[in-house]
């Protein structure tokens, strides 16, 4: 695909601005969350069902936050920001830091240093001694969401240190203001739950659902950039129309791919058209196939099949490209 073809496709999805699939998902999530709260209040076995409901809502929150990151929820910047912050608040992601980090991931996709996700992974492997390697491999094989957890910690650390925001005073203040709002509203909700004797029950259900969310986040994210080539440190940013080279898509699973993960499996199409809303990705993926029929080959595995085969293998072999770069950074 060249720039002219890319622009033609890009224009085709920006013309039609209806976002009813996103609105339907938001409405569904509000109802599911209300049902989840009701079941949590009832306690006992109902709390188990509530966890299931919350996991669906949290998974959607993660994906809608991703949509808000790309301003794909609405044409209004305010609505995108509002949705991003609410979703981030719900699932413990500082929206502004995540937005900046994720947009750099798209602009510098595949770059070992300028893509913050790649940089963090490479640093993790370059700090690795034999003992850490053994522990990492054990965690990987046990399906625990190591990468998701360390990414959350990175985002909060950067937010608190104000590292993620360019050092212009105004933006730093904005970041601090939002951390303050997040913190105060967590305390406020905690006090309300405590007053209504609902605190312990809710906290238990909430954290079990959050842990399961971390598991799903890792399940859907890992296949996208594992075993993809990395650029050199001196390389320039790849144009969007060439970003299929550094991203993988997964095979579609009926219902799951559309309704549960909002077409997140079409990651190559998402890298080529990052502003396209989630419900346009299947069509854009089909268009991409007309330019790059080879893309079909990478779609042999869905996320679950990918995890089932790769969780049995060594993480260092799956992430060999990252490990190779990390090895060059280790002191002699
Ligand atoms: Zn990506
Ligand atoms: Zn994205």
TrEMBL record:
Keywords for this protein: Membrane, Transmembrane, Transmembrane helix
Positions of transmembrane segments: 20-39, 46-65, 77-96, 178-196, 202-220
Keyword NADP in annotation: no
Domain Fatty acid desaturase: 50-295
Keyword Acyltransferase appears in the UniProt entry: no
Pfam family, one: FA_desaturase
CDD domains referenced in this protein's UniProt entry, alphabetically: Membrane-FADS-like (cd01060)
Domain of life the protein comes from: Bacteria
Protein name: Fatty acid desaturase
């Amino acid at each position: 695909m060249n720039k002219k073809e890319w622009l033609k496709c890009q224009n085709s999805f920006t013309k039609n601005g209806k976002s009813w699939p996103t609105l339907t998902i938001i409405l569904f999530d509000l109802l599911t969350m209300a049902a989840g709260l009701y079941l949590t209040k009832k306690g006992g076995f109902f709390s188990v069902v509530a966890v299931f409901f919350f996991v669906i809502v949290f998974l959607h929150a993660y994906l809608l936050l991703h949509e808000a990151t790309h301003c794909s929820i609405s044409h209004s910047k305010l609505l995108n920001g509002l949705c991003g912050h609410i979703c981030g608040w719900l699932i413990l992601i500082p929206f502004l830091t995540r937005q900046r980090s994720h947009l750099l991931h798209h602009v510098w996709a595949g770059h070992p240093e300028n893509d913050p996700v790649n940089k963090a992974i490479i640093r993790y492997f370059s700090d690795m001694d034999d003992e850490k390697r053994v522990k990492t491999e054990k965690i990987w094989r046990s399906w625990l969401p190591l990468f998701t957890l360390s990414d959350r910690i990175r985002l909060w650390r950067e937010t608190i240190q104000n590292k993620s925001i360019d050092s212009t005073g105004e933006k730093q203040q904005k970041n601090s203001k939002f951390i303050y709002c997040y913190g105060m509203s967590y305390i406020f909700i905690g006090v309300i739950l405590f007053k209504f004797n609902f605190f312990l029950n809710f906290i238990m259900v909430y954290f079990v659902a959050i842990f399961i969310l971390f598991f799903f986040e890792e399940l859907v994210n890992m296949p996208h950039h594992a075993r993809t080539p990395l650029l050199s440190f001196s390389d320039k940013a790849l144009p969007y129309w060439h970003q299929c080279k550094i991203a993988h898509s997964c095979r579609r699973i009926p219902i799951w791919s559309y309704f549960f993960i909002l077409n997140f499996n079409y990651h190559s199409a998402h890298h080529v058209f990052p502003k396209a809303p989630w419900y346009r990705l299947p069509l854009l993926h089909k268009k991409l196939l007309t330019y790059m029929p080879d893309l079909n080959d990478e779609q042999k595995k869905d996320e679950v099949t990918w995890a089932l085969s790769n969780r049995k293998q060594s993480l260092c072999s799956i992430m060999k490209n990252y490990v190779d770069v990390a090895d060059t950074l280790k002191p002699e």
